Amino acid sequence: MDGRGNAPTSRIGEPLWRHFVMAGLIAALLTPLVFFEPFKLIEAKVFDILSIISPPKPDPYGVEVVAIDEPSFSQIGQRWPWPRTLHAQLAEHLRAAGAKVIVFDVIFSEPSTEEDDKRLAAALGPDVVLAADDVLTKLEHGVQVTRVNPIDPFLDAGAVPGVASVAPDGDIYLRQMPTQADSFAAEVLRLAGHPVQPPPEGALIQHFGPTRTYPTVSYYQALDPEEFLQPGRFKDKIVLVGLSLKAATSADAGAPDTFATAYTLTTGDLTAGVEVQATIIDNLRLGLFVIPLPRIAVLALLFGGAFLAAALSIRGVTWRTGFAALFVVILLVAGAWVVLRFERVWMPPVLPAAAALAVFGTRFGLDYARERQLRHAVSEAFSRYLSPDLVAELARDPSSLKLGGERRNLSILFCDVRGFTSLSERLKDQPERLTSLINRLLDPLSEAVLKEGGTIDKYMGDCVMAFWNAPLPRPDHPQRAVSAALHMMEAVSALNETLRREEGEDAPVFAVGIGINTGDCVVGNVGSRWRYDYSVLGDTVNLASRLESLSKEYKVSLILGPDTAEAVRDDYVLIELDRIAVRGRATESAIFTVVAPASQRHDPAIAELAETHARAIEAMREGRRDIALTHVVRCQSLAPSLADYYRTLLYKISAMRD
Question: How far is 466 from 482, CA to CA, in rounded Å?
Fold first, then answer.
């Protein structure tokens, strides 16, 4: 709660609790994915990518690989499977070379010739591990597991069986550590004097590199290590023998013993099963396998990502939000890599990042909808007062509308219909007729304001109040206000002509009086919390209203205040009507009217009028009655449209004392 007892809100005015409830809802909607098996493959792909970024490396590698590879097939010159006497020779040579444990990643589950089997059995012993296999058979009522062991003579000779089975994931990539107590890797390490506990269920393999990462020699080289290898190559080492082929071993054979690993993503190559077993052995030996977080912890991360995104988008969606979203994703991915690399724990970042992006996206969608709603509200609110161009500009950038009151220099226009009271009296029994007439007049008057980008403040019966330079800035607002006034006067003349054609000589004749003043005002929402208007306040407004009423006294259609006149002096030919007392000013201020546009300034009649009028006003102020009369009479002939005004001056001059 804030100091006034109100619940805290975000910058966009939404209660904070609602913001975080939205994030919680999104996280809840994503929760089923935590337990959705196909989605785990996406997490697994991310694990593959992160696990090969600067992976830990065994130093030294704990296994030497003897590869049954293409060069060996070429040198030995026999088809697979090779005679077991050849494997017996290999075992004897490896033992003689000092190998600590000899491991065959080959399943000898079927008898060969009696002589070959006896020869191999004689070469085996308790320092040899032979591959066994668990075969899964799906039955109607479950899954049957059948253990396929090496033949009994080999086991009787002391060789130890180890289950070499591995289980690729649904995308055929190998990630899962074998968890059997008698797994191939566990038995190898037990014989090597490194007894280990089986890894927990779900543990993941940490691969150390692409194919041929492990120290590898060809089978034919290991058959004669003294000739082909440096002395002591196999001394006290675990030596792992297995297939490492690029192609099938025979025409009728399927793919060789190879697997897709994390490095397949970058190299496109498969890794031989013998290298996979070497990798599993070092994972167990050094504890480098990876423990995935339990699903409940992933669920907590999911909600954490959503709430983190919610916290970063409290202030609404701006251009900075994109960087915040990128920061959250990078933070989650980098955090997952750090924990994986140094703690050997897999903290999948996919769902937390998805939740964060979903919150950012939802926040963006809500803000966009709110902005659309605000634009519509702005358009709806101002379409009656502003020109379509201004409404469109406000809709594009509602922030330019600063509601609540601000000080700004404005040009204020008041336009009043002359003789409306008498017209109302004449048509008191025809209210529809009166309404129709005033609407026909106000329509072109309003159009003149909107055409010049003005804001219609209000209609007061037969009076229109408008202003310029708010809500959107218009640097040339005095010129626009005067231009609108001149268009208003033209519109009244056009309407009178139309009415005369429609109704003849009895048609009503309209006239307007307009006052324009420029100065500082307070503009914004004015009213109560139940009803308010976008309006202006200040002495500038009061003077504009006074100028409009003075237009009746001076018998002119348009009167400009001193600041307006000063601003448009280069755009129009002006004449000073008089000087009046203005509130807040010690001296009287001049008021003006427009005679012609500036383009006619050099017209002889206009130039003479401006000069003669100035002399008349000067003579009046100096009390030179006869000279003033002469000049005013001349002005009256030069400007018939100002005849009523000059008659007023003649009356004032006649009343002067010499």
Answer: 12
Question: Residue 74 is encoded by which pair of tokens?
Answer: 């070429």
Separation of alpha carbons 376 and 396, rounded Å: 10
- Cα 548 from Cα 554, distance rounded (Å): 10
Q: What own/partner pairs with CB < 8 Å and gap ≥ 24 does 248-254 have?
A: 249/79, 249/80, 250/79, 250/80, 253/80
- Smallest CA-to-CA distance from 242 within 275, 269, 211 is with 275
SS (H, E, C) 153-215: HHHHCCCEEEECCCCCCCCCECCECCCCCCEHHHHHHHHCCCCCCCCCCCCECCCCCCCCCCC
- How far, CA to CA in Å, does 560 sit from each of 7, 50, 411, 413? 51, 75, 10, 9
Quick one: average pLDDT of 422-442?
Answer: 85
HSE-CB at 530 with a 13 A cutoff on CA atoms is 0
**Phi, psi of 213, deg, nearest 5:** -75, -40
Amino acid 100 reads K
3-state secondary structure 130-152: EEEEEEEEEECCEEEEEEECCCH
DSSP per-residue string spanning 485-523: HHHHHHHHHHHHHHHHHHHGGGS---EEEEEEEEEEEEE
The secondary structure of 311-336 as a DSSP string is HHTTT---HHHHHHHHHHHHHHHHHH
pLDDT of 385 reads 56
Give the tens place of pLDDT for each residue, 586-622: 678 999 999 999 999 999 999 999 999 999 999 998 8
Alpha carbon distances (Å) from 507 to 423, 427, 492, 495, 510? 11, 12, 13, 11, 10
Ranges of H-type helices in 244-292: 264-267, 273-286
Report d(CA 158, CA 222) in Å as an integer.
23
pLDDT class for 242, splitting at 50, 70, 90?
very high
- The rounded radius of gyration (Å) of the Cα atoms in the chain is 48
Q: Which two tokens stand for residue 97?
A: 């070379």
Q: Whose CA is closest to 292, among 355, 342, 348?
A: 348
Instruction: Tell me the three state secondary structure of residue 650.
Output: helix
Token pair of 134 as six digits:
């668990």
Q: For residue 645, list its beta bridge partners.
A: none
pTM passes above 0.85: no
